[in-house]
Specification:
By secondary structure, this protein is mainly alpha-helical. The protein is 69% helix and 1% strand. Among the domains are: 37-155, Alpha Horseshoe (Serine Threonine Protein Phosphatase 5, Tetratricopeptide repeat), CATH 1.25.40; 346-383.
């Protein structure tokens, strides 16, 4: 079978035509890529790297004007505006992005996230709340709920804080239980101030349920009982606190614990409990509570021992409330040492030019480098 050269003559023009079409497609693709990444965009990035944000903003604005459909340019420009504190311009950029109908879902979520950040940093918390809520159920869900929790705390909307924290707690395996207990305690305090006793009791019960080991619900429960004249119930709540927390949070109610014990006739039991805590943790709060339970007020010998173990102005003040004959030489020396130790950090010189303070006298101020700017007289906290 002989080859027909007529087919070759027909094929050559077709091959040339296909090649020309392919080259035109490549040129169009190259032109589209150039349009999608205009030179102004790279110029703006270069200016950013050289720490010239003003010029970078001008470059990005030029790039957006040349290609208003490129989302990345809008994000770069909006972030620059936010970093410079120009929140109104940042909001306009990100709202323009959200108004586009051709924006992909991921970029729409990103624009909504950027808009929420704009509102947060601008202090527009009501609009920030709405923007964060729009991100629930998206890839920014965790951050959105955390931001809403911050807003609820800032506005002291404790009911809303409980709602948001409960959802976060369910997803994080109990990481927000302690915070939920604090929110319920705030609700209890508000209800108690308004005279809604049942509501306050319910809030404290929810706080105990949310974080059984939390100290604050027990402290508040005991305070409410003592205020209502139920001293024995107050002691029961605080005994539970003492057994679970040791002397940590119990120090906040140690003196109230002693008053409750006196009110319900359980002074001896309270004294035994306080001495047991004192052996492990010699705190001034425990000594003060024992003074309330003691037959003669402050115990000089006990305060002398406290001063020798842990010198402090509080212990010194308590010792001064006892008769001087109960101090003895050891007490007087401990008192002097405590006062000297407390006064030492307060004795300092202050530069008359810049206010720089130092415990040593300087002929040249380390702060402003002025010469002989330190008055020779020391200052202290009482002046």
């Amino acid at each position: 079978m002989e080859f027909d050269f007529q087919w070759l003559l027909l094929g050559l023009p077709l091959a040339f035509a296909f090649g020309w079409i392919a080259s035109r497609l490549d040129l169009r693709q190259l032109g589209r890529a150039r349009r999608e990444t205009p030179s102004a965009y790279f110029k703006g990035l270069n200016l950013l790297l050289n720490e010239q944000p003003d010029k970078a903003i001008d470059a990005f604005i030029e790039a957006v004007q040349h290609d208003p459909d490129t989302a990345e340019l809008h994000f770069a420009l909006g972030n620059l505006f936010r970093r410079r504190g120009e929140f109104e311009r940042a909001v306009r950029v990100h709202e323009h992005l959200l108004a586009r109908g051709d924006l992909k879902a991921a970029e729409r979520e990103r624009a909504q996230h950027a808009l929420a950040q704009d509102f947060m940093q601008a202090g527009l918390f009501d609009r920030a709340e709405a923007a964060w809520r729009a991100l629930e159920g998206t890839s920014y869900d965790r951050e959105a709920r955390s931001a809403q929790l911050t807003l609820a705390e800032r506005s002291r909307d404790w009911a809303r804080a409980v709602e948001v924290a409960t959802r976060l707690n369910e997803s994080d395996g109990g990481a927000f239980a302690s915070r939920i207990a604090h929110y319920e305690c705030e609700l209890a305090l508000a209800a108690d101030a308004a005279g809604r006793d049942a509501e306050a009791e319910a809030a404290l019960a929810r706080a105990r349920h949310a974080a059984p080991a939390a100290a604050r619900p027990l402290i508040l429960a005991g305070q409410r009982h003592l205020k209502a004249g139920r001293a024995a119930e107050a002691m029961t709540a605080w005994d539970e606190l003492r057994e679970h927390q040791g002397s940590g949070a119990f120090l906040l109610v140690a003196e109230d614990y002693a008053r409750a014990a006196l009110a319900c006739g359980r002074a001896d039991a309270a004294r035994t409990a306080l001495h047991a805590l004192l052996a492990a943790h010699p705190a001034t709060e425990l000594h003060a509570a024992l003074d309330l339970l003691g037959p003669g007020g402050a115990d000089g010998e006990r305060w002398v021992a406290q001063l020798q173990r842990a010198p402090s102005l509080t212990a010194a003040q308590r010792l001064l409330a006892t008769p001087p004959e109960a101090w003895g030489p050891a007490g007087l020396e401990a008192l002097r040492a405590a006062v000297a130790r407390a006064a030492r950090p307060l004795q300092r010189y202050r530069c008359a030019a810049c206010g720089f303070e130092a415990q040593h006298y300087f002929w040249q101020c380390p702060g402003c480098l002025n010469w002989e700017s330190y008055p020779p007289q020391r200052i202290d906290a009482m002046q």
